[in-house]
Amino acid sequence: MTTTKLIELAVSMKKRAYCPYSGFAVGAALECSDGSVFTGCNIESASFSPTICAERAAAAKAVSEGHTDFLRIAVAGSGPDLCWPCGVCRQLLSEFSPDGSLRVIAVDGNGRWESATLAQLLPRAFGKHSIRCDSL
C-alpha cells in the first residue's frame, strides 16, 4: 500500500469520529506486515477516561482479528498541527513493535505529513523486555 493511500484512509476515518466534547476528530489507518489495514477513529466519553484514541481503536481491531505485526500507522488530525500519537498510544503501539521500527505518519488538517519511527517518538520504551517475572 502506498503512503498516500494509507493517509487517505486515515483522513477518511475522521468523519466517523465521535468527538462532541473536544471537537477534534482523529482518524487512523494501521498497516500490518501482511498488507492488512485496520482503521479507527477517536471516540470520546463524557467521563473522559473511557475515551479511546483512533490509534488504539485501529490497534484493537487488528489484534482482535489476529494481527500483531504492525508495519505503519497514519494518524490524521483535524487541526493545523501534525497529529502525533499521544503517550498512551505510543506505549500501546510499542507492545507490537518492541524494536521501535513501526513507522508513524502524522498528518495535519491540511494534508501535510511527516513520519518518524516509534523508537524516535518513544525512546527507551517500557515493554515485555523490561519485566522480569522471575524476580517477583
What does this structure look like?
The protein is an alpha+beta fold and 136 residues long. The chain is built from four helices and five strands; from the N terminus they run αββαβαββα. A five-stranded mixed sheet has the order 2-1-3-4-5. Strand 1 and strand 2 (37-41) form a beta hairpin. The radius of gyration is 15 Å and the shape is globular. The relative contact order is 0.16. The mean pLDDT is 94.
Keywords for this entry:
alpha+beta; 5-stranded mixed sheet; single chain; 4 helices; 136 residues
The strands making up the biggest β-sheet line up spatially as 2-1-3-4-5
Mean pLDDT: 94
Assembly context of the chains: single chain
Helical content class: 25-40%
What's the gyration radius in Å? 15 Å
Unreliable runs, pLDDT <50, ≥5 residues?
none
Distance between the termini: 44 Å
What's the total helix number?
A: 4
Shape: globular
Largest sheet: 5 strands, mixed
User: Count of DSSP E strands?
Assistant: 5
Structural class: alpha+beta
List the helices and strands in order: HEEHEHEEH
Strand content: 15-25%
Topology of this protein?
Layout: H1 3-13, E1 26-32, E2 37-41, H2 54-64, E3 70-77, H3 87-95, E4 103-107, E5 113-117, H4 118-121
Parallel strand pairs: 3-4
Antiparallel strand pairs: 1-2, 1-3, 4-5
